[in-house]
Amino acid sequence: MSILSIRNLQTEFRGPAGIARAVDGVSFDVNPGEIFGIVGESGCGKSATCRSILRLFAGATARIVGGEVILEGTGDLAQMRESDLARVRGREVAFIFQDPLTALNPTMRIGKQVAEVIRRHRKVSRTEAREAALQLLRDVHITSPERRLDAFPHELSGGLRQRVVIAMALALQPRLIIADEPTTALDVTVQDQILRLLKERRDGTGTSIIFITHDLGVVSQICDRMAVMYAGRVVETGSVRQVLDHPSHPYTRALLDALPGQVSRDRDLTPIEGSPPSLITPPSGCRFAPRCRVARPCCAQGAAPVLKPRSGVSADHLDACILTEVPDAIA
Amino acid sequence: MIQVIFKRLLMLVPVLIGITLIGFLLLQVMPGDAAERAMGTRASAEELAEMRRLWGLDLPVWQQYLLFLRDCLTGSFGVSIFHKKEVITLVAERLPFTLGIVALSTLIALVIALPFASLAALRRGRPADHAIRQIFVALIAVPPFWLSYVLILWLSLRLGWFPTGGVGEGLAENLYRLFLPSLVVGLSTAALIQQTLRAALIDTMKADYVDTARAKGLRRHEIFLRHVMPNSLISTISIIGVRVSWIIGGTVVVEKIFSVPGLGSLLIDAIVSRDLPVIRGLTVFFAIMVVIVNLITDILYALADPRVRLE
């Protein structure tokens, strides 16, 4: 039984240029204790998908217009009243934001910000919450945590701030943590520490993690299963080994070919020509077809293709390519 | 902190030298003779000469300037030709009323602006927001003298809730009597604060840490009161500071209408009667007040926002 099951999720953002369907029919499952990676270019809808789970749309006018977000034992989050969803946020499902520099309130002390989430969901005194906050800072390996409790965010480094954000996410031992590019704003050594911290947490408590990133290296480092998104849709999903070692969708292959680590010395990096399509007026058929090197005329017709297992491949490795046989030589 | 305050007060010196010089020279080119004004039209030539000698008006300009500087340094700011009192004494008599209007009007402004700014920000783009904007734009547009008379006609004469003007004895009595003039001043301050605060609130609501607060499961009112409001209020501190500096010398019309013996009416009376020492003294005094208010604003700003350091 999966802990989170997203079915045909559709989310629209209203902007000055029109309505963009940033998430258009996304489905995937997250199993207990697994780290599920979502990768894709900027604007592919990976962040919008995850924000849709808890309906955290910042200042944007966004709306879930279809589909289900089933949290095991709780129900469909997409249908839930805002006040009920507020009880799920932070307690059952926690969120880690991309930029630790802006994710903390600049005028509130660290200890109070961490204690706040505890006091919201548990009936504890101020001192008890402060003690718990202190322990949480210790848990995420913050040095001299007593001193940090009374610090303001700007007094901490980016890495420390991200640890504070993670401490807040871990506070109520949520079943699911959604991490939206938690390491993108950090430098590489700190990035590694944060990844290890998340992995350690999963290994210790069996918390599931959805990990959003555009870094395939990070995915292969910590994720168990993954989904590749393009233009608001999942184009390929499976275990990390299946997808990265035997990519079956042309977009996934093109992504891997554009990755420096995958290239042998005698071959150049292959960029993906063109740019992603508009989500306000998406093209018909396969959305990657205009940029795809193996596309045929039939690719750009009809409805967007759905995820299906490719014949002769494992049943849990799905892709959404219209062509039944994808030639290997894309580059 | 104390060091910083001291440094800032030291920076006053060049500002004040500039102010005294400009203030003094401008008054030299102002038409009208101070002695004639003080003595009336029937004074004889000898009497006028005696008057000029007494007040140093016959001295060369540079000597008059040095005398003025001496008066500033000794703290008297000169002696009024009309009142025959030291300017500092006149200021001390009137300052409480002006500060009363400053404090009361700012309080009234906050009480009005905070809820309406919150409501407008939470309902931005909707009818409530538009209605509030129209009302507050109207408040800015309405001339204070008109608003003063409307309030006098309505609240004083028709309903009899407030006196039509004047001041009385004791703090409570004066706060009551200063309420109407403070309301007139406070309404335009409220309009100013409402507009900036609304914009700041809308801006803050888009901040990442507000999303963090939502992700923690906090309820709407908790997010608004604990995270959005405090961070938005910081930007209104400087607005209030600028406004307070202005009110200290700029409420002439309201003071006149409500017969409040404040600094604004003192200045206007001095200009009308060519009471040069008072005009000059007040100019310097206002400059000092502006610098002090700015300093207090900066201190409050640094206290409210931990990222800002006073320097």
UniProtKB/TrEMBL annotation, chain A:
GO molecular function: ATP binding; ATP hydrolysis activity
GO (cellular component) term, any one: plasma membrane
Pfam family for this entry, one: oligo_HPY
Keywords, sorted A to Z: ATP-binding, Cell inner membrane, Cell membrane, Membrane, Nucleotide-binding, Translocase, Transport
Membrane topology: Peripheral membrane protein
SMART domains: AAA
InterPro entries: AAA+_ATPase, ABC_Ni/Peptide_Import, ABC_transporter-like_ATP-bd, Oligopep_ABC_C, P-loop_NTPase
Biological processes annotated in GO: peptide transport; transmembrane transport
Principal localisation: membrane
Residue ranges annotated for the ABC transporter domain, each copy included: 4-256
Record-stated family: Belongs to the ABC transporter superfamily.
Name this polypeptide is given: Putative peptide ABC transporter ATP-binding protein y4tR
Automatic annotation (TrEMBL), chain B:
Leader sequence residues: none
Domain spans labelled ABC transmembrane type-1: 95-301
Keyword entries, A-Z: Cell membrane, Membrane, Transmembrane, Transmembrane helix, Transport
GO biological process terms on file: transmembrane transport
CC annotations in GO: plasma membrane
Species whose genome carries this gene: Pseudodonghicola xiamenensis
Location(s) in or outside the cell: Cell membrane
TM spans (from-to): 97-122, 134-155, 175-193, 228-248, 254-272, 284-304
Transmembrane helix recorded as keyword: yes
Keyword field contains Membrane: yes
Family statement drawn from the similarity comment of this UniProt entry: Belongs to the binding-protein-dependent transport system permease family.
Bilayer topology term: Multi-pass membrane protein
Protein name: ABC transporter permease
